[in-house]
Structure formats: C-alpha cells, structure tokens
Automatic annotation (TrEMBL), chain A:
<dbReference type="InterPro" id="IPR003453">
    <property type="entry name" value="ABC_MlaE_roteobac"/>
</dbReference>
<comment type="function">
    <text>Could be part of an ABC transporter complex.</text>
</comment>
<feature type="transmembrane region" description="Helical">
    <location>
        <begin position="200"/>
        <end position="220"/>
    </location>
</feature>
<protein>
    <submittedName>
        <fullName>ABC transporter permease</fullName>
    </submittedName>
</protein>
<feature type="transmembrane region" description="Helical">
    <location>
        <begin position="232"/>
        <end position="254"/>
    </location>
</feature>
<keyword id="KW-1133">Transmembrane helix</keyword>
<feature type="transmembrane region" description="Helical">
    <location>
        <begin position="22"/>
        <end position="41"/>
    </location>
</feature>
<feature type="transmembrane region" description="Helical">
    <location>
        <begin position="53"/>
        <end position="74"/>
    </location>
</feature>
<dbReference type="GO" id="GO:0043190">
    <property type="term" value="C:ATP-binding cassette (ABC) transporter complex"/>
</dbReference>
From TrEMBL, chain B:
<dbReference type="InterPro" id="IPR003593">
    <property type="entry name" value="AAA+_ATPase"/>
</dbReference>
<dbReference type="GO" id="GO:0016887">
    <property type="term" value="F:ATP hydrolysis activity"/>
</dbReference>
<feature type="domain" description="ABC transporter">
    <location>
        <begin position="7"/>
        <end position="251"/>
    </location>
</feature>
<dbReference type="Pfam" id="PF00005">
    <property type="entry name" value="ABC_tran"/>
</dbReference>
<dbReference type="GO" id="GO:0005524">
    <property type="term" value="F:ATP binding"/>
</dbReference>
<dbReference type="InterPro" id="IPR017871">
    <property type="entry name" value="ABC_transporter-like_CS"/>
</dbReference>
<dbReference type="GO" id="GO:0005975">
    <property type="term" value="P:carbohydrate metabolic process"/>
</dbReference>
<keyword id="KW-0813">Transport</keyword>
<dbReference type="InterPro" id="IPR003439">
    <property type="entry name" value="ABC_transporter-like_ATP-bd"/>
</dbReference>
Length: 261, 264
C-alpha cells in the first residue's frame, strides 16, 4: 500500500511546500509594497539600485537584443523563402522583438545579473547580522533594502526593454539588408507598418511586471537566506531560477491577457 | 522604596521546535549598571538579546523597559522602545557597502530617525562628526575613508562600537565583544566599552564566554544554563561564586554538573 501512497504523499508534500512558499513570497511582496507608500523612502538606495539595474545591464541587454534580432531575421528567411513570403520578415522581426523577445530576453538577462546580485548582497547582509544591525539603528530593513529595489526594478526594466526593442529591430535590419539582400527603405517601411503603439506599450507593461518579479525574487531569497556562505549561494540560485520561471509564466499570462483573440 | 529597573524580564520563554532555548528567564538590570551574562555556546544568550531587541518574538513572558512591556506594546511603540538600544554585534556587522565614516554617520542619523521631533542630521554633517566619534574609540579620523573589509577584527569591533554609540543610546548590548581578538586587543575593547558606557551613562548588557572580559565590563553577572539564569551576583565574584555550575564554567573544568551535549 505504501508503494502506491508514498509517491502521492510526496507530490502532496511538494505541492503544499510550493503553496506555502508562494504565500510567503506574496506576503513579503505586499509588505514591501506597503513600505513604498509610507515614509521614509530611501532615495539614495533607490538611485543606486536604478543605476545598477538600468545602466550596468545595458551592455548585456543590448548585445542580446542585437544578436536575437539578427537570428530571427536569418531563421525566418530560411523558413519563409520556401513559401516566397520573405516580405513578411520585417514584420516578423519587429513583432517578435517588441512583443516577446525584447521583454523576455532582457528580463532573463537582468534576472541572471541583477536578481543574483540582489540575493547575494542581501543574503550576505542577513548572515553577517547586517540586517539585524539595521533594525537596531532604527531602520526597517524592508523599507531600506527591499522597497527601493522593487521600485528600481519595476522602473528600470521598461527602459532596458525599450533599448532592447530598438537594437533588436536594428539587428534584424542589419542582417536583412547586408546578408539577405533586402532594400533598406522597403524594410523600414514594412517594419513601421507592422508595429502598432499597443505592441510597444504591452511589451513595456510586461517589462515592468518582470522587473518587479526579478527584484522581488532577489530580495525575498536574500532576505530569508540562512546558514552562511552555502545559504547565500543557494539563495542566489533560487532567486535566478525562481525569477526565470515566474517571468515566463507571467509572460504567458500577460500575452493571453493582451493578445489572445 | 526601590527604584524601578531599567530592564525587567519575567518568565521569558522561547523554544525552536522541541528545543527549549529560554525556559523562564527572570532578570532585573538597574539603570546605569553593566550586566554580564555568561553561559556555554548554544545556551540562548544571543536569543535573549534578540528577544529584547524584538528580532525574535518570545513564546511567553514580559520584557519591560522603564516599566513598559515591549511584548504586548503596539508595533509602533515597540519600535520606539527598541530605538533606545544600541548594539555591538559579535562580528561588528558593519555595512560593507559603505565606508567606515558612512557606517558611523548612519548610526548618528539613526538618532534622528528614532525621535520624530528631532531634527535629522544631514549626511555631510554626520560624516564630519564621524571623525570625532572615531577618536572616542581610539581610531584616527582618516580610518573613516576606508571600507570595512580593509580593517582588522579589532578595528571592526571599534568601528561597530563607534556606530552603536553614535546615536547616544540609553541601553547598550554587547554580543561577545572580545571573541576572535587577542588578549591585549580584547582588553582594549573592554576598556573602550567601560569608558563609553560611563560617558553615556547608559545601561548595558553584555554576553560573553571570556571571564576576564566579564569581570572588566560587568558590575553584575548571571549565568544562563538550560534556559534559566542559575546564578546572579557581582561580576567580581564570578571566579569564586560558590555555585558549582558557575565554578565549573568559569574555571573551564571538564568534570562537574554541566554536561555538554555531544553530537555524533
């Protein structure tokens, strides 16, 4: 009997643990949000985080976007040329980049870079008593460490995605005109005709949600880390994995919300 | 008529799972005195301090500061009561993203945070004042430009002390202040602690394994064993208390009533 019940019990335990974790993260996020609207707000921490996310992530996001745009152009040319539909490539590139690849790839890059850094920084502060020290210095750690980072993540990612959108389209343009023989003016006309303001806006909304989730995962796993260097290492891994999965799940939900007919 | 103790603890209990860490701690600390708590590793000394600071919620009991129970106080009021307390952490707990001067300036500005009616000190003024506070703990103001990772263990403890006293607290906690330091540096830190406590006129609780440090810092002392304070007396009497538990601990004897839990 145990042979049958044990796997079911294991699934049940894992499900309960997942639900408990989701609940804890939601409460953590709501507590952090409540600190955003209650003074004091630590502007110095906010601007430092904003520069760390928005400025220092620019190179990695830019390179990812340029190459992704180029790859889409190449891949779609290979497929579409079989049906003599090469003229659709400009539309495919711009829509793929603006609606999906810009927000998702920029989000994944920032999750790897910034989410991990946040978890490591706050986790190290936790295991070396710096978080408790904040408390003894009349400073609420949620207000000081978490709330400014959440706001910075939410505002920085739309900026990065806007840059990624432009560079991704330029990557597709460069490959299409230099390698696939497209006329530059026709490519630009097709691109502008295909993209609508709503596509860009929804991409930026997605980016804001992704930025919030990445910062939330980094802060949550860092804040709750235990057990020295090993605990900080595992918090960092959990932050990146958790943010990446949540990001893709929310990408589906937001796409379904905005684009499903 | 007896004066009200600055800190009064009654029946404090805290368990983590099945393990009872604090099992009915009663403690009075008179205003302006230094109280040292000794005890073996894992006996709950740090948990006791963290309960008083509000970092850990006790399961039962009262923690009064100036007669006001912190456990049942409204969260806002509890924050105000905790804001009277400064703490020197075992490893210094300096903010490694800030310079030494900024660490101390942060402590100085905490005073403004604590009292809503107080005028907050600006960062630039706080950084200037940090140099004077560094001098009070025997460090040159030029140390302020360094980052915490560039300091030795003893210097980190001094900067931690400087940050804690910057906000002129009414109560100071010291968590293992001499752990990891050589005997001379330990004596220096103890001397600084005694000076700072006297100058501020504050009430202090220190927890330590170091008997020499306990006698240098403390006016009174107590020993925590199996979740309870099993002995209380003058710190000067620690080495000849007459209590078999205290005697075994203070003289570091293997044989005696204290049995160490060995884990396989």
């Amino acid at each position: 009997m145990n042979f049958v019940l044990e796997p079911i019990a294991a699934v049940g335990r894992a499900t309960l643990a997942l639900i408990r974790k989701a609940g804890a993260m939601s409460l953590f996020g709501m507590a952090a949000l409540s600190h955003l609207v209650r003074p004091p707000f630590y502007w110095r921490v906010f601007f430092t985080s904003l520069i760390e996310i928005a400025y220092f992530s620019l190179p990695v996001v830019a390179l990812t976007a340029i190459f992704s745009g180029g790859v889409i152009a190449l891949q779609s040319y290979t497929g579409f040329s079989q049906y003599h539909a090469q003229s659709a490539i400009a539309s495919i590139v711009v829509l793929a980049v603006v609606r999906e690849l810009g927000p998702v790839l920029a989000g994944l890059m920032v999750a790897g870079r910034v989410g991990a850094a946040m978890a490591a920084e706050i986790g190290t502060m936790r295991v070396t008593d710096q978080v408790d020290a904040l408390w003894t210095l009349s400073t609420d750690p949620m207000k000081y460490l978490v709330a400014p980072r959440l706001l910075a993540g939410t505002l920085a990612l739309p900026f990065l995605v806007l840059i990624a959108d432009i560079l991704g389209v330029m990557g597709g343009f460069a490959v299409s005109t230099s390698k696939l023989g497209f006329a530059p003016d026709a490519y630009i006309i097709n691109t502008l005709a295909a993209v609508k303001p709503m596509d860009v806006i929804v991409g930026l909304v997605k980016a804001a949600v992704f930025g919030f989730l990445i910062a939330l995962m980094g802060c949550y796993h860092g804040y709750t880390s235990r057990g020295g260097a090993e605990g900080v290492g595992s918090a960092t891994t959990s932050a990146v994995v958790g943010a990446s999965i949540l990001l893709l799940a929310f990408d589906y939900l937001l796409t379904d919300l905005f684009f499903a007919q | 008529m007896t004066s009200q103790p600055k800190i009064r603890i009654r029946g404090l209990k805290k368990a983590f799972g099945d393990k009872k860490v604090l099992d009915g701690v009663d403690l009075d600390v008179e205003a302006g005195t230094s109280f040292v708590i000794i005890g073996g590793s894992g006996t709950g000394k740090s948990v006791l301090l963290r309960c008083i600071l509000g970092l850990i919620a006790p399961d039962e009991g009262r923690i009064e500061i100036d007669g006001e129970d912190m456990v049942t106080a409204a969260p806002r009021r509890r924050e105000e009561l905790v804001q009277q307390i400064g703490m020197l952490f075992q490893n210094g707990a300096l903010f490694d993203s800030m310079s030494v001067a900024d660490n101390i300036a942060f402590g100085l500005r905490a005073k403004g945070r604590a009292k809503a009616d107080a005028k907050r000190v600006s960062w630039s003024a706080a950084r200037l004042a940090a140099g004077d506070i560094l001098k009070q703990v025997g460090l040159d103001p030029s140390v302020g430009a360094l980052s915490p990772s560039e300091l030795s263990g003893g210097m980190q403890k001094r900067v931690g002390l400087a940050r804690a006293i910057a906000g002129t607290p009414d109560i100071m906690f010291f968590d293992e202040p001499t752990t990891g330091l050589d005997p001379i540096m330990g004596a220096v830190i103890d001397g600084l602690i005694v000076d700072c406590v006297k100058r501020l006129g504050c009430t202090a609780i220190a927890i330590t394994h170091d008997m020499a440090s306990a006698q240098r810092i403390g006016d009174k002392a107590a020993m925590l064993y199996q979740g309870r304070l099993v002995w209380q007396g003058l710190a000067a009497d620690l080495m000849n208390s007459g209590d078999p538990l205290v005697d075994q601990f203070t003289h570091g004897r293997r044989e005696g009533p204290i049995t160490m839990e060995l884990r396989r």
